[in-house]
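Subject: for your reference before the review

Hello V.,

The reviewers asked for a structural picture of the protein, and I figured it would be easier to keep everything in one thread rather than splitting it across files. Below is the amino acid sequence we used in the manuscript, unchanged from the supplementary table.
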Amino acid sequence: MMFIRRIALAICLALSLSVPAMAQERSATRQGFELAPGEGKKILVFRPAVSVGGQSTAGMFEPNGEWTEAARRNIEASLARLQAQLGNQVIAAPEAYGEDAQNLQEHLALFAAVSQAVIEYQFFVGNRLPTKKKDNKEDVFDWSLGSGVADLPGAKDADYGLFIWNRDAYGSTGRKVLQVLALLGPGVAVKSGEHRGYAGLVDLKTGDLLWLNADGAMGGDVRKEDGSDKRVRQLLEDFPGSSIAAEEPAA
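And here is what came back from the structure prediction:
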């Protein structure tokens, strides 16, 4: 009986670890930046960076091309449905080739790295850099991708660029079993699954990050259309000047 109770307790704890940690969702806006709806500003939407796969027992990411393609298709469709609610003129970035495509991929990777740094060194209270502790006290949000964004395809025809980076790793059966056994044995918390998403608005002249929504535990299964809608709504929640809510309004 005691063993069964321990298993039940471990399963409950494991489930609690897999619930999207809404409290981790954080967004910030650069001090002094405002974007009212109807200002006529042009927002250039870059093709989202999307990767979906499994998480091995050891925690390694295992890419899945079929899942990634379905998720990319769903996210782009959801983004197309919601972009009219962003409050200003939205234009799609032109298809990039050759050096332009490489430059764009490098900036998407840079955006992901900067977003992760914001989470770790400014948002996370216990790990703030000394400079960011001061910034938080003074409500300063000062991060940049650099002036190289001005050379991205379509940048010269817009005011701001919207970057979206998304990565999902679904825990394998082995990973879930390990999660339970780790709790039953040494009492160690093992995370199963990873669902990270970042959306950021960037000044296309300076590269300054004007707004960021960075969440390390997002909801919505991006492999499905309705799950993708939920994910994109969460990504664009609090977007300056928009009317997009995290949850779809009831009909």
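For the response letter, the relevant points are probably these. The first helix runs from residue 2 to 18. The beta strands are 26-29, 42-45, 49-55, 61-63, 89-92, 160-171, 194-203, 209-215.

Happy to draft the paragraph if you're swamped.

O.
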